[in-house]
Amino acid sequence: MYDNQLNLAYCFNDPEDKWLSNYFYEQCFNTAQLVKIDGGKREAQAHANMGLICEEQGHVMKAAEHFEAFYQLTEGLTWKDETGHTYNSLACEHLWRIYTLLADKMLENKEHQQAIKTLIKALKMAKEGGDMKMEGEAAYCLSLAYNFAGEQQTALSILNTSVKIFTALCDSAGLGRAYAATAKILVSQGKVAETTEYLGEFMKAAENAHLSQSLVDACVLLGNIYNERGKYNEAFEYFSRASEAAKTLNNLPLVEETKTYYGIAKAHKLMVAFNSRIEAEDPVSLKYLLAWKENRSDMCTDPLTVGKTLVMKHISAVLSSTVKSFFL
């Protein structure tokens, strides 16, 4: 009977028939409790299906209960699904995901210690599941919870684990997030020099591994640090490198984003020189600014180099007039 009910549940795949599919999964679950000849395999499968239904409906705690039962019934066993994955590895994946969801809610409610305990369980499941990507993500989430709880050194230690895993996987997205989180913590501790050194290592590693996305992330992070501290020349250089690296990825939104950073840094860089001319309040600086105003049609050129010839001619004329007046 169980197998027939399960096949009926599979039949109703259309969104409008979801309620009917769920009904047959519930019937499967009830029937599975009565099956005693398969070592609990059908019961485990039924718990997995009910866990997915509860999760989809937003009943996260109830989903966790079903996935925990699924895990307990499959622990140490070699049952596999049609894709070749063991039931126990699937249980680990489901529990990693559901524990992470539960922890997110706890963090929203400032329940930091409870979230940490839940994410430790998520990391345990990720390790048992044997999926390095999952383990890296679990470590990253746990580090964030420790940081929110004010335990920054523990957070940094776990982030280092996450970085090692993402590096082994050549996971650019994961590396970018882990390095960004580490940099944020170090900056908050006032360790700016250590942060830039750390991100410099990230940048070199990305270059050596030909990870263009990671190179973009590293350059943007470094550019932001220098930009926030008024070191606009350095910021400009890193944002420029980020823009060039982004172009190799054929990712238009990313290219546009790095162009924005590049433009902001260039504006800040030019602003310093521009303001120095304003503050000088002398005829040469005024002439310089007027020359730039008249010739700045190419905004990609440093405006303070435009009109240089005119300014030099003006200086020469002033000096010549002064010399003539002296001898006369």
TrEMBL record:
Primary residence: cytoplasm
Superkingdom in the source lineage: Eukaryota
PANTHER family for the chain: TETRATRICOPEPTIDE REPEAT PROTEIN 29 (PTHR46630)
Organism this protein belongs to: Calidris pygmaea
Pfam families per UniProt: TPR_7
Subcellular location: Cytoplasm
Keyword Phosphoprotein: no
Task of the protein: Axonemal protein which is implicated in axonemal and/or peri-axonemal structure assembly and regulates flagellum assembly and beating and therefore sperm motility.
Name by which UniProt lists this protein: Tetratricopeptide repeat protein 29
Record keywords, A-Z: Cytoplasm, Repeat, TPR repeat
GO biological process: cilium movement
TPR repeats: 216-249
Keyword Chloroplast: no
GO cellular component, one term: sperm flagellum
